[in-house]
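Go through the following before class.
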Amino acid sequence: MESGNVTLWQAVWYGHQPCTGWRRGAGGAAYQLANVFLLLGYMGGGGGGFAGLLCSRALLCCGFLCAGAWSWTDLCAADAFTWSFALSAICAGQVVHVAYRLRGVSFGEDFHALYGALFQPLGVPLTVYKKVADGCSPASLGKDHCYAVEGKTAIEKLSLLLVGRIRVTVNGEFLHYIYPYQFLDSPEWDSLRPSEEGTFQVTLTAETDCRYVAWRRKKLYLLFAKHRRIARLFSVLIGKDIADKLYSLNDKAYFSNGFRFDIRLPSFYNLVASGSEVSETNIALAQSSSRKHPHTN
């Protein structure tokens, strides 16, 4: 076996005509350009997702074309030209296939801005974002109109603000604002199970003309069941949104002597329960943020 391996190795190493002299000078512009394209293509020069795949395959296609041209004009080797041409054709076919899959991924201006603000930083491909965008419906809200009324409006959807500003109040007391690319009802969404129903515990009023997109609860849960990646994505976005709303209330919690109190500390909830040291307005504020899921909007 060992002698057979040695014989094979010797046949590979010595079974060809040795190079009596090395060619001087560069291999030509086509050869150099081919290697540059191949390097960029194999490094994934286009990034991730379908757009990155499209760019990578296009670079490889150009690299193999240049290699084929060099094989035909300089190397004069039919087998090298054939392989380069075949590989170039395969990459060109992949470019056409990826471009065909991306042909229907087009959005309006608001959806493009939403993708750039929330989904693109998380590395969400356009094809996945298209599934998210197809499941929502755009809507508008005039100035001084209410999106939800405390104790009356049912929790039936999940909405995200695109343009404008929403004022959030509870019992007539101001809590905070909702700005573009924040959810309008993330705490309400997170407080209910798919089979449960409930009503808003806060009032949401438009301070300016607003535009938003909304997902119906049942349709969104069906989308989550089909695509686990989208479910994890919304879990991250909603969790971050709730945390941002909760922290925005931190500046509004204070003792009767004027000192601010950090509502993230567990002792704050004990103070709320005992009713000591906290003004009545801030007790209501703290109670709304210390339930099972903080209703901060």
